[in-house]
Amino acid sequence: MRHLNRLPTKSETYLGGLFALLLSSGLGYLFWYVFRAASERPDFLTPSIVGVLAVLAVIFAWSSGLLLRILFGSPRLPSFKGQAATGYLMVSVGIGLCTGSLLSANNRAVLYFAQGICAITLGLFWAAQARRAARVAHHD
After folding, report:
1. 69: which residues sit within 8 A by CB, 6+ positions away?
2. Across residues 108-133, what is the average pLDDT?
3. Is 5 within 8 Å of 78 (Cβ atoms)?
4. DSSP for 19-83?
5. Contacts by 60-66 with C-beta closer than 8 Å and gap 24+?
């Protein structure tokens, strides 16, 4: 995994399409199930459930758009800025997970902290890879 700025292979495209289909289908069903349960029981519609529904809707829309782009779009290289932004987004999510786990009295705080460290590490790797690829492309 040395160069992230290349076109995906056929197997990567197939796996990406399959993953996007599973993610879109699963999140669509989960959104529908929670929305239906909340509409049948209005007391179930708390602010946290509304937040969960909003997050599920955003991720469902993103994964559906990704699936359509994989199925019907033409392959193109990711931009260096987009790769770096993805890396920094992963770092910020990791920092949020680590901070939240330190402030939480939950018994799963260690798991969230480990996920945060993993997200920070992968995000920094992704951003560094994008910066390196941008420098190489700029010098060519």
Report:
1. none
2. 89
3. yes
4. HHHHHHHHHHHHHHHHHHHHHH-GGG--HHHHHHHHHHHHHHHHHHHHHHHHHHSPP-PPPHHHH
5. 60/24, 60/27, 60/28, 60/31, 63/20, 63/23, 63/24, 63/27, 64/20, 64/24, 64/28, 66/16, 66/20, 66/24
User: pLDDT over 70 for what percent of the chain?
Assistant: 94
pLDDT digits (tens, 9 = 90+) for 20-66: 888 888 888 887 887 788 778 877 777 777 777 788 788 888 888 87
Residue 3 contacts residue 133 (beta carbons within 8 Å):
yes
Measured distance CA(21)–CA(18) in Å, rounded: 5
Rounded Cα–Cα distance for residues 56 and 62 (Å): 10
pLDDT in tens, 87-102: 899 999 999 888 988 8
- Alpha carbons 39 and 49: distance in angstroms, whole number: 12
Is pLDDT at 2 greater than 70 in this prediction?
no
- Rounded CA-CA distance 64/131 in Å is 29
Res 82: pLDDT: 83
